[in-house]
Amino acid sequence: LCRGGLAERLCRLQNRERSAISFWRHQCISDDKIPSDKSGVLIVKILELFEECTIQVAICQQLEESPATLSAEHAVVSAREPILKVLFARETAAHLKSRPQDVIHIYPPWQKLLLKKAAVPVIMNTYFSQKVLPSGHSETRASTHGLRKMLIRKNIISLALTFRLDDDELPQQPSAHQVACGRQMPDKCDSKQHPSAVNDSLLEMVESQGAVGWREAQIRVVIQRVYCLPAREGCRSHLQGNRPLSEALRKDGMFCRLCLLVQDAYGMFSEVQLQSLNSADDTEQYSRRWEGKFCCLAGMKILQRTTRGRALGLFSLIDSLWPPVVPVRVPGQSQDSEMMTTDLPPPSFCYILTAQSGEIHVEVDEEEEISNLYQLPAVRGLKDILQIHACNERCSFWARVLYLKPQTKLNVPVNQREICLFVTDCTLQGMAPLTPKVVAVSVAASCVLSTEVTEALSAASRLIFFKDALWGNGRIICVERTVLLLQKPLLYSAAGADLSELTGPVRLDELDSTTQANSICALRGTVVGVNESTAFSWPTCDRCGNGKLELCPRDRRLMYCNQCSEVVTSPVMKMQLEVFLRCPSRSQSTVKVKVMTQTELLRMLLGTECPGLFVLINMLLSLQSYEVQSVLGKEVGLLNCYVHSATSHPNCVALEEIVLL
């Protein structure tokens, strides 16, 4: 707010008003009695209650003052001014919890409004009000605070009356677009648990119900997306269990919260945060059952009103769903076909909703057909995604994971480390020039992965569906609200998306002058040197892969694994060595390849015309004299390598030979 401006002054005035009201109420509760000063106090008895435009309207009779404590039984009706219409704000009504026949004391500064065409005066500014209970009934006073909120009749003011629309301007029959966008939720939403009418506008619901909670109202929306958001440790009990690859793939110390991105008939979006989960294993099931279906929400409260600048990730997903595929309604206008449009600016704010404790009601009609307002993810090939010029754009694709590289920075906590997946598809494996054959996809720590996906990635090369990944600055990133699935989505197949699988062997880009760090490539060359100082080998457990074996206490000739608590009779040998190659594709560079492998992999390239580097290392380490000359000049390739660094000063490329999934 501008310093000294009207908005800032109004904000300060409202804060002082709220503080004064809170202090006055606290003082009344602490004294546990009616304030002694009765000058200017208006005493009324409630006859009828109803709600109109978020204001509680009470039809009351004015009472004469009575000495000592005034009760409803001894109240005297004034014949001079018998009927009043008293307006209570939402907060005041929630504090009073009034019912018919209750006696209310209204303290100054209340105001009386006389309308020209109405005989009943209106009482406003009733913030300093107190309910009066019969004397000697302190237990009744205590129990009153625990009463459930009484169901109050609500007078719905028609928009046609508000905007003074004539009857001939209103459509007599709904148009085709109205049926598509504003279909009534099935009778299931009009259950006895929620007797009020079903609304179809998020904004109208917020304005009428406020931020404290929608106890007696429900809203009909369309579920556009289902996903999980991470929740830090402390939101619920600690996760149990320790699965393989937990340090690389699972987000230890994090939970996830099931969330829905919903849209109303006016195009307004809202994110609904539901119950917390220990894992994202059920996300795929909820997504398959709920996305595109109508849903009725009740028992919600506003957690936050966020804007585009505060939640770029959320609004990048909303932008991918904008504009709507069918015309939406326009607030404040008659809803004929001419007033339903798709030419609207994208939303600039979004309400984050959550369920009140013990009052969550999410009713999804899974048997209902897919809504016309639902938008499928725009599935593209990786080649098309690489040609997108926009930034922070959501994209969905189907790709095969070839290699997984966890982040190993020691200064980054395990639950905040990224994972790099190297993927490809049929659009990249062609012969198109200047098109990479493999693309790196970064999986941020905020992207929640299901156990099924993590176990599949650790086992073998799998086809993964990446839904709503983020493309920007030449990178594909899986962030919050990105979902990774193993099953082929039937809806997306029906939409004509290209989900064809690879038919031949996978090819990598060969090492050349354009190869960058943190990529994978294929390498061929001639051995020109070996770094003997780095050559070593060590035994590992054949069951769990533990590389820190000890001598068995009972038999010093055997190895013992502390993790398995078993004797290791057949240890698997691992080795490491650095080899220098001369590569025709980078003749001016020093190419250094680090090899870390197991002896069981040494047979991979046996019998080939150009032996693999594993074979040459085996030859070198098996020689007792370690004659380097025995492997110099040998040709190797093609090797699959991960590029650690590629520098021009000095002109050097450091690689590590890898095994694809």
Automatic annotation (TrEMBL):
User: What Gene Ontology cellular-component terms does the record carry?
Assistant: nuclear chromosome; nucleoplasm
What would be one Pfam family of this protein? DUF4503
Domain DUF4503 span(s) in chain numbering: 263-660
DUF4502 domain residues: 1-113
What is this protein's name?
SPIDR protein
Under PANTHER family, the record lists: DNA REPAIR-SCAFFOLDING PROTEIN, DNA REPAIR-SCAFFOLDING PROTEIN SPIDR
Which GO terms of type biological process are on file? double-strand break repair via homologous recombination; regulation of establishment of protein localization to chromosome
